[in-house]
Amino acid sequence: MFRAVLVANRGEIALRILRACRELGMGTVAVYSDADRDAPWLRLADQSFLLGPAAPAQSYLDGARILEVARRSGAEAIHPGYGFLSENADFAGAVVDQGLTWIGPPPSAITAMGDKLSARAAAMAAGVPVVPGTMEPTDDPEVVRAFADEHGYPVAIKAAYGGGGRGLRVVEREADLRAALEGAQREAVAAFGRGEVYVERYLTRPRHIEIQVLADTYGTCLSLGERDCSAQRRHQKLIEEAPAPGFDPQVRQQMGDAAVRLSRSVGYVGAGTCEFLFEDGRFHFLEMNTRLQVEHPVTELVTGLDLVHWQLRIAAGEELPFTQDDIVLRGHAIEARVNAEHVAAGFVPSPGTVTAWREPGGPGVRVDSGVWAGWEIPRSYDSLLAKLVVYGGDRETARRRLRRAIDEFVVEGVPTTLDFVRFAVDHPDFARGDVSTVSVEREWDLSPIPPSPQAAQAASEAPKAPSRTFTVEVGGKRLEVALFEPEDPRTLRRPTRDRGRATGGGTGASGDLVAPMQGTIVKTAVEPGATVAAGEVVLVLEAMKMENQIPAHRAGTVTALHVGPGDVVNAGDLLATIEA
Predict the structure, then answer these.
(1) Distance (Å, whole) CA 464 – CA 355
(2) Rounded Cα distance, 530 and 551, in Å
(3) Residues in contact with 560: Cβ distance below 8 Å, sequence separation at least 6, in sequence order
(4) Same structural domain for residues 218 and 293?
C-alpha cells in the first residue's frame, strides 16, 4: 500500500476517496482552490495544499502545480477521481514520469479510450458495434452539415475528450448547426481543456446502459454488470440504477463480453466503464470512461465490492482474488444525484449558501456528499452536491426506499434536484422501468414540480432565509412554521411563481432582461437594434460548468446590451433591454 495518496479532485468524490484511503491505512493529501478554502472534505485529509484561483484552469486542471504539491507532500500516488484531469493521458504520463503511481489505467489506455474517436476505432477493431459517426475531429460546420445530409437530422456534436454530457449538443435542424458546434467547443474547453469534437447519428429513443469493468495487472478483466443511466437532462445523468430494469440476461452477457473484449484489447487496468446505447434490442458502443464513474455506488451495492478500494489495491500491485463466475448481482440499487439546480426553472444551476443540511438514514440508505450546513457552493464547478443511494431486495423496494429517503433529506438555502427525483420516482414510466434518454426533457410534463422555496424568495425579493422559525401545535398536530420578514415591512408583497422558461429573465410588462443565475457571459447572440421574438436566444451564460441560453422574455427590439463576453453577473443583474 501507499504511505500517502494525493486526491486531485474536490467535492463528494474527494471525500469518498479520502475515506477509502483511511480505511486501507494510507495517508492522505488534499488540494483545493481559493473557492474551496473552507470545503468540508479538507478536514478529513492529513495534509491540504492550495492550488490557485477558483478557475479550474488555474487550479484543478493545473497538472504542473499538482505534481509540485505531490513532491512537497511526500505523496507516492495520485488518484484523480472523475472529471478534471482523470482522463488526461499527458498528465497520467507526467505522474508516472515523476516516479509516482497513477491510480487509473495506463496512459496508453487513456489515449486509446479517453479520446472518443480512437475509442470508436478500437471498438470497431474488437468487433463491438458503434453508433454511425465521423472518425476525425473537426471544427468545420461543413463537415457536420455533410454528415447530417447523409444520415439525416438529428445529429449529435460531441466533445472528443471528457464526458458527463459536457460539450454535447444535439442539432435538430441545419439552422442551429453553427451555434451548436461553437457551444460544444466552448463547453469542452471549459470542462476538459480541449475543444475537439466529432459527429454521431442521434438515436431517437434509446436507453443508456453501461458496463462496469475491473481489471488487474495480471491479466484478469471482469464485467461487474450493468447500470441504467437513462434518466437525463442536458445529456447528463440524474438517476442511475443497477441492474437495468427488465434487461434481458442474454443481452447483459453479450454487452459484458463486449466491454471486457474491448478493455483487454487496449490493455486496460483498474476501474472503467463502457457506455452503450440500447434501442430496439440492439446495443451500440458509445464511449469508454477511463476512470471511476459518478454512479459507481450502485454497482458496489449489488456486487458487494468496494470499487475505490480495488482501484487503490490494483494500483498497489494486488491481484483480483475472484473470477467472472464469482460476480453475482444481488438486489437492486438506485442513485439520485443531488445537484444545486432549480428544477422548475429548467434545471438552472443555482450556487449559494447551504443554510441547512440533514441527510437521511435508515436501512439501505447511503449518502455520498461533500456538503455541510454553512458551506457556500462555488459557481466555478459542477453543480453536484451529493448522491443519494438506496438498496433493496428488489427494484420496487428500492424505489419506495428512495421515495422515503427523499422526504427525509433536508437541504435549505439552495434549490436542488431532489424536487425532480421526488417527482420522477412516482412517475408511471419510472415505476415500470420504461425510461429513455429523452423521457425527462421530451416526454414528461414537469410542470407539476413547484418552484423551490429559494426560487420563490428570489422572485419576490424576500430574504434568503427565514427570519424566525417556530414549532407549533394546531389541534394537537405538530407543524413547522418559517417566518419570512422583508428588510423593510413597507415593501412587503406577495411572492410570485414564474412557471415560464427559467433561463429567461424579466416579465412581460418590463423591458428588462435579467440574469436568472450567477455566471459568466460567454456569448452575445444579437446586436443592439436587433428585432427578436419571444424565446429567441439573446445571450449565453455559463454557470457551474454548464452553458445556459438566455432567451428574450418578450418580442421587441434590443435597445441595449448591458453585458458582454467575459462579464460576471449575479442573479437579477440587468443583461439587456428589449422594448416592445
Answers:
(1) 9
(2) 14
(3) 528, 576, 577
(4) yes
* 115: confidence class by pLDDT, cuts 50, 70, 90: confident
Confidence of residue 218 (pLDDT cuts 50, 70, 90): very high
Q: Is 219 left (phi over 0), alpha (psi -120 to 50) or beta?
A: left
Name the nearest CA neighbour of 157 among 124, 191, 122, 184.
184
Q: Is the residue at 247 inside a domain?
A: yes
Question: Is there a single domain that holds both residue 568 and residue 469?
Answer: no
Indicate whether 305 and 337 sit together in one domain: yes
Q: 279 and 187, same structural domain?
A: no
In 10 A of CB 330, how many CB atoms?
Answer: 12
SS3 7: strand
Model confidence pLDDT, tens digit, residues 310-358: 999 999 999 999 999 999 999 999 999 999 999 998 899 998 999 999 9
> Do the domain assignments include residue 500?
no
3-state helix, strand, coil in the chain (%, to 5): 30, 30, 40
- Is the domain of 352 the same as that of 319? yes
Domain that holds residue 183: 132-201
Helical spans, DSSP H, in 35-128: 63-73, 89-97, 107-114, 116-125
* Structural contact between residues 99 and 77, judged by C-beta atoms closer than 8 angstroms: no
Sign of the torsion angle spanned by Cα atoms 143, 145, 148, 149: negative
Spell out the residues 6+ positions from residue 362 whose beta carbon is closer than 8 angstroms to its own.
404, 405, 408
Residue 335 lies in a domain: yes
Cell 491479466 belongs to residue = 219
Q: What does DSSP assign to residue 318?
A: P
Please tell me whether residues 342 and 485 are part of one structural domain: no
Identity at 153, one-letter amino acid code: Y
Which residues does 428 contact at the CB level (< 8 Å), separation at least 6?
A: none
Q: How many CB atoms lie under 10 A from the CB of residue 92? A: 27
Q: Same domain, yes or no, for 216 and 197?
A: no
Is 136 among the domain residues? yes
Residue range 15-61, pLDDT digits in tens: 999 999 999 999 999 999 999 999 999 999 999 999 999 999 999 99
CATH number for 180 = 3.30.1490.20
C-alpha cell read off for 182: 461553437
DSSP 130: B
Q: What letter does residue 264 receive in the DSSP assignment?
A: H
Q: Which residues pair with 133 in a beta bridge?
A: 200
375 in the same domain as 256: yes
441's grid cell: 426533457
> pTM, whole model, 2 decimals?
0.81
Say how many domains are in the chain.
5
**Mean pLDDT of all residues belonging to the chain:** 89
User: Other CB atoms closer than 10 Å to residue 217's CB: what's the count?
Assistant: 15
**CATH code of residue 23:** 3.40.50.20
Beta bridge partners of 232: 237
Burial of 152 (0-12, 13-18, 19+ CB in 10 A): exposed
Q: CA 507 to CA 347: how far, in whole Å?
A: 19
Grid cell in block for residue 323: 473470477
Strand pairing of 221-233 and 207-215? antiparallel
